[in-house]
């Protein structure tokens, strides 16, 4: 268990019909976001696992500043393991590693 994400390694799933039990697991997802050609007033939206993160570029923002700003906003979500900004050349990227929590009911065979 990674202490950064808390100490829970199991979860209880309730409310299932008789004969079913629940299992719970966490998996990861990797995404890459690319920013380029920024202009004042541009709005960048990134949607990860149903959550939308948005920044508006100011007239003093650089590509690096916009990339770092959006990465910091994404990193603020507890389900995001990492949001790493990388800037070089004419584009900036954000490499995102997010956690996906999966719960699945399973029917007991009798």
Task: Describe what this molecule looks like in 3D.
Residues 1-10 have low confidence and may be disordered. The chain is mainly beta and 110 residues long. 12% of the residues lie in helices and 50% in strands. A hairpin with a 2-residue loop joins β4 (80-88) and β5. The chain has one helix at 63-75; strands at 20-36, 43-48, 51-56, 80-88, 91-107.
Structural topology:
Layout: E1 20-36, E2 43-48, E3 51-56, H1 63-75, E4 80-88, E5 91-107
Antiparallel strand pairs: 1-5, 2-3, 4-5
Q: What's the gist of this structure?
A:
This protein is mostly beta strands and 110 residues long. The chain has one helix and five strands; from the N terminus they run E-E-E-H-E-E.
The biggest sheet amounts to: 3 strands, antiparallel
* Topology, number of strands: 5
Discrete helix count: 1
User: How much β-strand is present in the residues?
Assistant: over 45%
Q: By helix and strand content, what is the structural category?
A: mainly beta
Name a few traits of the molecule.
mainly beta; 50% strand; two-stranded antiparallel ribbon; elongated; 110 residues; 1 helix; disordered N terminus
